[in-house]
Design goal:
Shape of chain A: flat
Number of helices of chain A: 3
Largest interface: A-B, 36 and 56 residues
Radius of gyration of chain B: 30 Å
Order of helices and strands of chain A: HHHEE
Distance between the termini of chain B: 73 Å
Helix content of chain B: 25-40%
Largest sheet of chain A: 2 strands, antiparallel
Structural class of chain A: mainly alpha
Strand content of chain B: 15-25%
Largest sheet of chain B: 9 strands, mixed
Distance between the termini of chain A: 38 Å
Shape of chain B: elongated
CATH class of one domain in chain A: Mainly Alpha
Structural class of chain B: alpha+beta
Helix content of chain A: 25-40%
Strand content of chain A: 5-15%
Oligomer: heterodimer
């Protein structure tokens, strides 16, 4: 299986990445190479092997349900481009 | 052609934890914008999510209550999309390995037989922030207080066949999460939200039709209306030979219609993958059993117990077990009355709920306590007052005029059970109604009720109706006077 340029363009669009013509062809080739590797891996018998969700062989530790954070709005908003009445401002989004 | 509706619901339940699912920020509703959004919630670089144990316990509770499988191992995944109220560019959710799968609930739509509805899965995820479109001129304001609030998304099988069944299912889940105390399920505040997948197919067909996903259904009434509107729209299109598009449609309550939302990305465009920031969640048997031990009596168990212990009908038991608070009120009333549980059921469901409804109050805001209602029931049971007079006493209790005994004494409402006194009322009435009496004797027997009414009226409602009946019958059978 190999990736076409239009596949790369779609993936880039979904990830909101702007790619040049050159980058699109480069990625199409590089990603296709990865698919070659995947193809090779697919030949291995993985019957009875649990799919890997994380490379570390440990499981989640849980937090107690306690409020430990304080209001740091001013600090966070000091680096926001636009702020009004405590809200972050963005271009109008309405469906 | 006859069409069959096929409906499945996705219900988002906001879990009643104190802190967020992956951070220690507060989840309190109604705070000033962005004051409860910490570095994890606003998606600053370098932060790490840590799972809230309480959210996990709550998800397990729901799973156990619907007889579902609790995953011994579940995984969090990233659901990738761009929207301004989603600062990380992905929502942490569960995809292939949800914490709860394959459960069921029993529902009963109005006037129909009970029915089993399958629950495909329930998974944990974080809520997004809120976009505010008013008050910012040409911009939108973003409030991230809600970002990271724990949600349990409960996905049903497409098992419902009418809007009525969908409502019954939704109410069953609503009652259940409140019983389990895992959510306040407040629909106005958005703690209980519902999307509906709706399609139709020719009656008898086994394949599903193309479905539309309805969003923005934030009340029971809207869910019913939106589904019925959408079903008719699809039937009209199919009968006109048109094709249904698989799409997301928004319900507009003002216009009572659904309309297409443009450009919602396809499911496979979310590019789910396991979140590398979170380790798999593993649960052992002992832990799950410790959660099971915390389960309260569930609505269905309570309903069956009410039917068995109090000899109530399925309908009455269903109404009285519809919330924990109402069920507790009812049982406290029965205990206080020391008498007929059916009588108590009639009063709690009739006069009490009626009065609460009229004033828009909930059972927890009732001005009369179970003890007071129970004492009133005891006075009906021991014949101190009749049911009719009891209504007068109840109204006085509602107006805070005291407890039943005090009101009965103060107003002189004690029932007349003295045979001689009742006979005097009877004699007077028969004397005053000589003409009707003659008609009665010549065969017009339905006048009996008229006499009873007059006698009760003469006693100002205080004569014991059973005694009036017996004594009157005896008198009328006797020699004509």
């Amino acid at each position: 299986m190999s990736l076409q340029k239009k596949d790369v363009e779609k993936i880039a669009w979904l990830a909101r990445l702007a790619l040049s013509e050159q980058e699109v062809s480069d990625y199409a080739r590089d990603l296709s190479d990865i698919f070659e590797l995947v193809k090779q891996m697919n030949t291995v018998d993985t019957e009875g092997v649990l799919p890997l969700a994380h490379p570390l062989e440990i499981t989640a530790r849980l937090r107690r349900d306690e409020v430990v954070e304080t209001n740091e709005r001013d600090r966070f908003q000091s680096i926001a481009p636009l702020v009004k009445n405590g809200h972050y401002l963005v271009p109008k989004v309405i469906e | 052609m006859d069409w069959e509706p096929v409906i499945g619901l996705e219900i988002h339940v906001q879990l009643a934890t104190k802190s967020k699912i992956f951070s220690g920020a507060s989840t309190r509703y109604g705070a000033e914008a962005n004051t409860q959004a910490c570095d994890v919630d606003v998606g600053l670089p370098g932060v790490l999510p840590v799972l809230n144990e309480e959210a996990v316990r709550m998800a397990i509770k729901l799973g156990l209550a619907i007889d579902a499988t609790i995953a011994r191992r579940s995984v969090f995944a990233r659901k990738n999309y761009f929207y301004p109220d989603l600062p990380k560019g992905y929502q942490i959710s569960q995809y292939e390995l949800p914490i709860v799968s394959r459960g069921y609930v029993e529902i009963q739509a109005d006037g129909e037989e009970p029915k089993i509805i399958g629950v495909t899965r329930a998974h944990l995820e974080e809520d997004a922030g809120k976009s505010v479109h008013e008050g910012f001129a040409s911009m939108s304001g973003i409030d991230l207080n809600r970002a990271g609030t724990p949600l349990l998304e409960i996905v049903s099988e497409p098992d419902m066949r009418s809007a009525k069944e969908a409502i019954a299912y939704m109410k069953t889940i609503h009652t259940l999460v409140r019983y389990l105390e895992i959510s306040d399920a407040n629909m106005q505040e958005g703690s209980f939200r519902c999307d509906a997948n709706v399609s139709v197919r020719p009656k008898g067909a086994t394949a599903f039709g193309t479905r539309a996903e309805l969003k923005n259904l934030n009340s029971f009434r809207f869910v019913e209306r939106a589904i019925n509107y959408e079903l008719q729209r699809q039937i009209d299109m199919l009968e006109a030979g048109e094709r249904i598009l698989q799409e997301t449609r928004l319900y507009d309550a003002n216009k009572n219609e659904t309309r297409s939302m443009r450009g919602k990305e396809e499911a496979n465009d979310y590019r789910y993958f396991p979140d590398p920031d979170l380790l798999p969640l593993e649960l052992d048997e002992r832990y799950i059993e410790s959660v099971r031990a915390e389960l309260p009596e569930l609505p269905r168990q309570k309903k069956l117990r009410f039917m068995a212990d109090y000899d109530l009908s399925a309908y009455d038991a269903g109404v009285l077990s519809s919330s924990r608070e109402l069920a507790d009120f009812y049982e406290a009333t029965v205990r206080a009355s020391g008498s007929d549980p059916k009588l108590c059921a009639n009063w709690v469901m009739g006069d009490l709920l009626g009065a609460l409804n009229k004033e828009g109050k909930s059972i927890t805001e009732s001005p009369v306590s179970p003890t007071m209602v129970g004492a009133l029931m005891a006075r009906i049971a021991d014949n101190t007052i009749s049911g009719k007079i009891a209504k007068e006493v109840f109204e006085a209790m509602w107006r805070s005029e005291g407890d039943a005994d005090a009101i009965i004494a103060a107003k002189g409402l004690k029932q007349v059970t003295d045979t001689r006194a009742i006979e005097r009322f009877i004699d007077e009435v028969l004397e005053e109604n000589a003409e009707q009496l003659a008609q009665y004797r010549s065969g017009k027997e339905k006048l009996f009720g008229h006499f009873v009414g007059q006698i009760l009226k003469k006693s100002r409602g205080k004569a014991n109706p059973q005694q009036v009946n017996t004594l009157l019958r005896k008198k009328l059978k006797g020699p004509s006077s």
